Structure prediction request, 133 residues.
Amino acid sequence: MADAELEEIRRARLAQLQQQGGSRGAGGEGQEDQKRAMEGERRSAILNQILEPEAVDRLNRIRLVKESRAADIESRLIMLAQTGQLRQKVTEEQLKDLLNAISENQRKTEEESKIVISRRKGGWDDDDDLLDL
Prediction:
């Protein structure tokens, strides 16, 4: 899709959202919904430009299972695209590799944050003081 076509779609959607916001009455809720919708459209437009169709399908399936994980992946992909680290469209295999790397990183973080309590066996006990009487 060309940039001009995307911009036209955005304008049409913005007009539609403004029309819906006007029917709700003047309030901050309509503007917040409108901003949220515009942000969602912006993110989806970027993702459609940087992901191959198979990768988009996989990301949508992930969203069905766990919304937060899909949002995290989207944010990382958008960040990579904005910093110029993506040279070509992301394939499904590359998306799988990214998912594996993130899950591995989360496992390591969870392991590092665990607190292990080890008790000594056969050590001193408060009850031992009572036996000396």
Remarks:
- The chain has a mean pLDDT of 81.
